[in-house]
Amino acid sequence: MSLPKNITVLIVGAGPAGLTAALSLAHHRCHDFVIVDAVVEGQNVSRAFAIHSATVEALASIDAADGLLSRAIKGKSVRITSRSSQIFEVKFDPLKRHSVHPYALYIPQNVTELVLGQKLQSLGVQVHRPHRVVGMKQNEKDSRITDVSFEDGQVIRARYIIGADGARSIIRTIAGIGFSDPEGPNLANNPLTQMIFADVTFEPEPVDPLTLEGHLNATVFSGNLFILLPFGNRFNAALTRDGEPTMRSVFRVGCGVPLKNGEPLHTPPKEYIQDLIDKYGPACITSDPSLNPTPVKVDQLVWSTRFRTHSAIADRTFTRFGAAIFLVGDAAHIHSPLGGQGMNLGIRDAIFLAEVITKHIQASVENPVVDDIMLQEIADVRHARALEIIGFTKTLLNLASFTYDSYAWWMPCSRASIRDLILRILGRFDYVQSKVAWSLSGLGRR
Ligand SMILES: Cc1cc2nc3c(=O)[nH]c(=O)nc-3n(C[C@H](O)[C@H](O)[C@H](O)COP(=O)(O)OP(=O)(O)OC[C@H]3O[C@@H](n4cnc5c(N)ncnc54)[C@H](O)[C@@H]3O)c2cc1C
Fold first, then answer.
1. Tens of pLDDT along 125-161?
2. Is the CB of 34 inside a 6 Å radius of any atom of ligand 1?
3. Is the CB of 268 under 6 A from ligand 1?
4. Which pLDDT score, from 0 to 100, does residue 208 have?
5. What is the pLDDT of residues 252-272, one digit of tens each?
6. Structural domain tally of the chain?
7. Could you tell me the CATH number of the domain that includes residue 195?
8. What's the rounded Cα separation, in Å, for the pair 188 and 333?
9. What separation in Å is there between the alpha carbon of 346 and the centre of ligand 1?
10. Nearest C-alpha neighbor of 295 from the set 310, 284, 309, 281
11. Which H or E run contains 60?
12. 187 C-alpha vs ligand 1 centroid, how far in Å?
């Protein structure tokens, strides 16, 4: 598909952040935009799986939540467990005092992208694929325009550019915006900096409250964390990339891989996942009869990946490079997936930023040299939100990586056992549960 030569807004990247930016522009009646992506449709894999209350509300505000609400599992809680018992449960129900969406939506990221893409299509907008941005320079005749060049030689002249092109953003790089951990790289030795995620089925299917739909389980182990999320079988067709979709229930599992174990393969095989489940997973999904009276084994490995996590934030979310340039989503900030905040923050960035861009476009119709104050203000707000969330995920990461080794010679108990004891006690108080649900929901930091 050939690209237009001139456009008001160019969105680079059609991941969740780029798609939502497009939906928000369209909702605010800005139609002079294009959205491009480097890869052909369908190459994005599962990844993020939680959409929190604040993000559902933000999506509803641009009329883009219905498809997700009808497809997703309405998550009731996050349970923190040891391998055999529950330590703490964060129930989302108390959020009903603050939101009409008192739940987290559990839905694989590729389905989220599919649903957002379908909504965009229904508004008459197509993502232009595959078109990879390779260069950007200020237009020689108009100082408020940037010429964006593509791998195939095409050039688009744009007045606003939304860089939604992920953690390795070319827009960020060419605009000369730095990207680093706000506190310096201090998590290098944390075992949870290296993780695997996989979608699996079990034989026989496990029967345990932990494996019921609607609950995300985080099992703490010495220095490690194991995530279990039952998807049931509602996403099987979308999750199965090759071959016939499985008829069985699919479970998302995620686990830290201790650095001393070396780097897992890019696509860890079934045996590797089984080994991690048996070492760190909740007893009810292990194949070890000494832990699980009804042992189960991984039957089908639907998808798997390994990844490294670290935190980084762009020095600026907005700059002028001829056009007004914004970074949203992973292009602007990355951090650990604990707490499931990354994609949520990116979606909310895109919704709020696109609204302000629309106002700026309208203002510039009346005054072609309108200043950038409103653009800078929203960029500062999004930057501050990202800093808060990076701090929040670092706290979660630190808490999750406590070990059961004795803390010091003068203290016979471990930091992990003290953490668990405190959580077990605090978990009896509704007030504490509500506060944790509130923190995860994003309602306090939209
Ligand atoms: C394994 C894994 C697990 C994760 N788990 C979670 C989780 O549990 N919870 C959570 O909230 N987040 C999680 N994340 C993070 C989450 O996936 C990201 O926050 C989210 O995808 C960011 O969306 P985005 O739209 O900003 O960027 P992306 O999804 O990375 O999309 C960027 C898009 O830009 C396109 N692009 C890149 N370069 C160019 C170019 N030069 N020209 C044109 N197009 C380009 C790419 O093709 C891509 O489609 C996980 C990430 C990974 C890798």
1. 999 999 999 999 999 999 999 999 999 999 999 999 9
2. no
3. no
4. 87
5. 999 999 888 889 999 999 999
6. 2
7. 3.30.9
8. 18
9. 9
10. 284
11. helix 53-61
12. 22
Residues spanned by the domain of 210: 191-308
Question: Following DSSP, what letter does each residue of 125-182 receive, concatenated?
Answer: --EE-S--EEEEEE-SS-TT-EEEEETTS-EEEEEEEEE---TT-HHHHHTT--EE-T
Q: At residue 14, what are phi and psi to the nearest 5 degrees? A: -115, 45
Asked whether 107 lines ligand 1 (CB < 6 A), one says no
Judgement on whether residues 169 and 215 belong to the same structural domain of the protein: no
**Best mutation site among 20, 165, 336 for ligand 1, i.e. most ligand atoms within 8 A of its Cβ?**
165
Please give the average per-residue pLDDT across 39-62, as a whole number.
Answer: 88
- Measured from the CB, is residue 113 less than 6 Å from ligand 1? no
Same domain? 239 vs 344: no
Which residue in this structure is represented by tokens 């009903």? 96
Burial 402-428 (b: 16+ CB within 10 A, else e): beeeeeeeeeeebbbbebbeebeeebe
Whether the predicted pLDDT of 42 surpasses 70: no
**pLDDT over 90 percentage in the chain:** 79
Tell me what the pLDDT averaged over the chain comes to: 93
Q: Indicate the pLDDT class of residue 43, thresholds 50, 70 and 90.
A: low
Nearest to 346 by CA among 109, 173, 71, 181: 109
In a domain, 280, yes or no: yes
Phi, psi of 384 (to 5 degrees): -65, -40
- Quick: pLDDT tens for 331-340: 999 998 888 8
The domain boundary residue, chosen from 260, 287, 308:
308
Order of strands, sheet of 73-75, starting from the edge strand that comes earlier in the sequence: 50-51, 104-106, 73-75
| DSSP-based three-state secondary structure for 306 | strand
CA–CA separation, 326 and 160 (whole Å): 8
Residue at a domain's end among 308, 326, 355:
308
**Residue 6 tokens, joined:** 């001139």
Total count of residues recorded for the chain = 446
